Structure prediction request, 57 residues.
Amino acid sequence: MAGSQKAKGKAEQAKGKAKEAVGRAVGNERMEAEGRMEGAEGDARQAKEKAKDVFKH
Prediction:
């Protein structure tokens, strides 16, 4: 279960970075902001999973 959540976090980070880059390239501020938000969600998910791992061991 934790592995799939970590993978989901990585995927959100990658998707967010890509969306942010495309938004910046085409001059779409909304898309760029959405990309940053998705990336932040991925970062938060990764941090949560890392914290769980610390308390498991």
Residues 29 and 57 are 43 Å apart (CA to CA). Helices lie at 2-26, 29-56.
